[in-house]
Amino acid sequence: MRDVNIGIVGLGNVGSGTMAILAETSDSIAQKLGFRLVVKALCARTIVGKQIPAALADALVTTDWREVVNHPDVEIVAELIGGQGVAKEIIDAALAAGKSVVTANKELMAAQGPALVEVAIAHGANIAMEASVAGGIPVHTVLREGISGDRIEAFYGILNGTSNYILTEIERDGTAFADVLAEAQRLGYAEADPTADVDGFDARSKLAILAALAFGEKITAADIFTEGIRRISPIDFQYAHRLGHTIRLICGARLTAEGLILSVRPALIPESTILASVKGAYNAVWVRGKYGADTFYYGRGAGPHPTGVAVVSDLMRVAREIRSGSPHRVSPFAHDRLEANRPVSVLKQKRAYYLRFFVKDRPGIIASLASILSAKNISLDAVLQLPSDDKTALPFVITVEPTSEQSVQEAVAEMAKLDFMVEPVLALPMETAL
Fold first, then answer.
1. Which of 40, 99, 106, 206 is catalytic?
2. What is the pLDDT of residues 117-127, one digit of tens each?
3. Residue 206 designated active-site
């Protein structure tokens, strides 16, 4: 069977990993496919310093992505630069030319993926995106094919390795957030501008994609309730451990009678749960199906080689379809058509909550806070206070019985007006459904 030719645009971490895997495993790939994947063109913004494997020495090397897309021999374009600007131009041009696309671009696929799939279908091409979420975990394939016969009721995931690394380092060493972030940047786990990771936006894009796969709903990422991890401190882990919990940035999706509730936020989860054991830069997804019950998927969420494996696997799948001429491929979003929808407001969600305070110590503080909670029909569960010598910024915690997010937010807003508050209350849900 004739070989399939590919072009790679973007030779950063993911592109370099993809290139290396294709070069080093070309024979085993050919054994699996019955034909070869041949890299015909490579593109990067700058070629200086790029190490092109000897096995790919015959490929065109360029700084102009158009030369890759317009190359007469290229049949599949791997878009590995990210973002929604030039990446969208590359994918549009490739699909318009009838060439299939493999991408790792979670931001673009979360925002415009369904529309791009329609364009691909119209031009007789394919688009694949396994590497866009949880790089080293084939969770797309799981939801799209592996457990597609089930009805998904909920899933919870740790989908950002940078945030998980920071949280688990704070937990392990008791180091402040800012210091752990600086170390993560030095090690290359965090970008110079860490906003997308630590404020939850990267995870939000990934959640929007997985929600489409699991529930068939086209979700606008901006509609997902999102909070980051900047306010998590070592003292929060001390109190969480007293409660038998830890803290992780959790991407949650739950199908309720009212609709789909989605959120990205730090939450307390029981130390006994499998997600609590996910540490460092690893990702994990826990899925609950109506019929198949619980399944769990764990692995590296990022990195040149784990994500490169996902890209190469997609290249192989698309190449098979090109050579077999399959007209009825499985949609990358697992559904023939996605229903445009907005998630149900997280304000309707009921959970137990962890409320952490820093206050200027004086008599009557607990009574004042309890009065506000009572006025919002919120019942106290426990009050915890570890020894502290600093009475000007005294930390303590109140946990409350399950109540609505709206009631908690209203109570927290009232508490912010109290003159003994040193900083706003930190309110974290306590997830017990895991």
1. 206
2. 999 989 999 99
3. yes
